[in-house]
NAD-dependent epimerase/dehydratase domain-containing protein
Amino acid sequence: MSPTYDALKLPSHIKTILVSGAGGFVGQELVKLLLELFPDVKLIATDIIEPPRLIDDEKRFKAIKADLGHTSQVEALFEGEQIGGVFALHGIMSGGAEANFDLGYAVNVDSNLNLLKQAHSHANEHAFKPTYVFVSSLAVYGGPKAVPESRVIPQDTPVIAKTSYGIQKQIMEMYVYDYGRKGYLDTRSIRLPSVTIRPGAPSTAASSFLSGIVREPLQGVESICPIASSIDDPILDSMPWYCTRTKTLVRNVAYAMCMPETEFKKYEGLGRSINLPGIKVMPRQMIDALVEHGGKDKLKLVKFEKDQAVIDIASTWAGDYDSSPSESMGFENDDPATGYSMAVKDFKELLEAQGKLA
């Protein structure tokens, strides 16, 4: 099962799209997809470090280094442009936000609010209402209905974040909702499952090992599994993870800007926040996928060292979610039986193309 793109049609007012956090993995993949699908749309990619210059055409693409914590730099991104769509992807990941309280709020709340306010000001200067997509996280859930054994029903499960990261995302979701409720912007928040397989170096996300358990061994590098003490630890069969294939996730993020605002009326109780679809996967299945695509010898590179900080954060995440509301809106999901294996296959093919496969 592969993502489909026929439904990805932008509203007519969107001629220029701004993507924050465009230097990150998901941001880069999103920009690549937008450039491929919408040749007549201008892309402005920004991040704290200048994003990669994917094409050499200033009329179609601009890569800008900007600190969104400074309002003057946010204003400069919009100056002289007619930005009809915004993807707000930038942020500090879960582990980093928990470890550095002040930085987490400065980036995940303050700088995001700067961007939201400027999009509103920009809307007041033009005769259209920009579509604003805030990239949130399923970390907004917590409490007794959102533990590893749970299957979250969005309409029946309160949003009670148990980490600083989740709380920060929850705060911004409320801001984004209110700007949409008032009619200032066409807003929507999308909550991402864990994305797999992420290339590059491990991130500060507590879920980073979900990719690392495959990513590093396929490159001949050791990887730490921080939730188990050995390959025989029963937690590998009892702590499910809700994740999505990279290709599916990027398609769904792009679709969030294409989805008609009227779709929200199907589920009034969800406000303007959408749980993107994912699949329930056990760590044992991840290890099996590593063996399937890399061979048994790769298991020697997986080291089991329990990290209580990671386990504590992971224990606040639900293992499964009802994705029927988002799927009915046009978001797509992976096959539960083969989705994770396909994600590993995608990554293996990427490594082969880059000459990095061990």
In short: The longest helix spans residues 101-124. The chain is about 35% helix and 15% strand. The mean pLDDT is 93. The two ends are 27 Å apart (CA to CA).
